Amino acid sequence: MKINDIKELSIQINLNGLSFCILNRTLNTIEFLKTIPFEQKTTPVEVLNHLKAELSSNTAFSEDFNAVLVIHQNELATLVPEELYNVEHKADYLKFNSKILRNDFITEDDISINKTVNVYVPYVNINNYIFDTFGEFVYKHSSSILIDSHLQNIETKDEPIVYLNINKSTVEVLVIEKNKLQLFNVFEYHSKEDFIYYILFVFEQLKLDVETTTIELSGKVEKNDDLYTVLFTYVRHVNFVEKKYKFSISNDIDRRYLHKHFLILNSF
Fold it and tell me: Record's Pfam families (predicted)?
């Protein structure tokens, strides 16, 4: 690394896998991008073991980073309007739609673009290890990044757009209409039938038209795989999310599948 190279590291934590991304600010280039999927959903303790093994064995992480961000991706989060938020009731907001334990640490992200507070449970063991390894760092919930990035970058359209960020066993669903977030939710699925049920349920509840409403896909999905095929069977307009980033992508990185890394690429 050149003496004056400024580098930033983002780490995405999920019980189904890990992702890593390094942005060289000096060259304005993403120079490292890697995903490590797990065979099955695991525990925060096991995730930490995987994280330790990767950080200690890969020379890409031995450099000095000017900024480190940890993205916690789980279902333990809920949005609260800014004007209704009371810090003393953090646990109350979460317990209505998440299974939380008495001793869970609860924190929040401010999403200024739509004046909401995202209340969530981070993986404390991961945070402790990252602090011991890198020193000062920032952490956010994945939904905060998804909501902010889609609202920041959306073109002004009257018609609603459904954004799906697909993971191994969950799907994050955002519906945006006239530049306003109409819905955000996370659904756990175990089959393509589960998956399409939840998506069509969202369409029904918000009275969206499967013939005219567009779905934009990111995450763990490819054209003509099972999830894409079942979506396209019921919804006419299904596209992969496209975005012009303010940085370039190294030639060593396969640009055909950047939609799979949408979350971590939008963390910078």
Answer: DUF3822
What CATH number does the domain located at 154-240 have?
3.30.420.260
Q: What is the pTM for the complete model shown?
A: 0.94
- The CA distance from 223 to 179, in Å, is 27
Q: What is the pLDDT of residues 106-129, one digit of tens each?
A: 999 999 999 999 999 999 999 999
Residue spans of the domains in the chain: they are 77-119, 154-240
Three-class secondary structure of residue 219 per DSSP: strand
What letter does residue 3 receive in the DSSP assignment?
A: T
Contacts of 160 (CB under 8 A, 6+ apart): 175, 176, 177, 182, 206, 208, 213
> Cα separation of 132 and 125, whole Å?
11
The residue among 79, 254, 261 whose CA lies nearest residue 167 is: 261
pLDDT at 104 (0 to 100): 87
Helix-helix angle 192-205:226-234, to 10 degrees:
30
